[in-house]
Amino acid sequence: MQEKHNSLKQNAMDGQVQIGIWCSLGSAMTTEIVAGSGCDWLLIDGEHSPNDLLSITAQLQAVGGYPVEPVVRLPSDDSDLIKQHMDAGARNLMIPNVRNVAQAKRIIAATRYAPEGVRGYSVGHRANNFGRIKDYHANAHKNQLLFLQIECAEGLKNAADIAALDGADVLFVGPGDLSTNLGAMGNPNAEHVQQAIRQVIAAAAKSGKPTGILAPVKADADRYIEAGCKLVAVGADLGLLARGSDALMTSFGKA
């Protein structure tokens, strides 16, 4: 038995735009609904959502039959969390608030088996189909995609050096945190924040790496795609449900 090819990694590295949806509700049912939408990838959020290892694993199971690649965002760069979620089948990981090269190197090492890294070895887990993928450990890195989030001034300053690292596959902009950390809370369209985003795109491109961003407003998403972003999340299950239910009630005269 062979591991399923990671189409998201291949397409992103080939320069194709990949459209995603954020999954923030902590529900395997709602994540499965999103998986059937036709999106290229979805993000299971473990940072700002009520998720844990078991609920994330359930969502990975729920979307396994769909032609979509799930990405899991962890709450931190903790190497034990990285190990557990990779063993559970999260081969596409997003790590928040990466600030410098030393931190990025530790994160990359946590995703790799020795001698390249420090990921703990287990004979059988969900990621290798419970021991059925015999060459999994030697080849796991080939199907892994690592998103490193740039969300602060320090990360911005070091973005080009971070992107140059082998194993730093995608620089992903967190516009909410980046704007907040640059003194423009809630206003990622401030000119200096937009300049920072363009700086991240240029830093990644210098090393031939793609950039991603969350852009739930279509005009913003179109602008970022035009600027060179390749992995663009264009909405979230939470927002779609909230805005959809608001619009329905408004149509019946309810505030």
UniProtKB/TrEMBL annotation:
Coiled coil: none annotated. Gene3D superfamilies: Phosphoenolpyruvate-binding domains (3.20.20.60). It catalyses: D-glyceraldehyde + pyruvate = 2-dehydro-3-deoxy-L-galactonate. Keywords: Lyase, Metal-binding. GO terms for molecular function: aldehyde-lyase activity; metal ion binding. GO terms for cellular component: cytoplasm. Residues 18-242 form the HpcH/HpaI aldolase/citrate lyase domain. Transmembrane segments: none annotated. The keyword Chaperone does not apply. PANTHER family: 2-KETO-3-DEOXY-L-RHAMNONATE ALDOLASE, 5-KETO-4-DEOXY-D-GLUCARATE ALDOLASE. This is 2-dehydro-3-deoxyglucarate aldolase. It comes from Pseudorhodobacter turbinis.
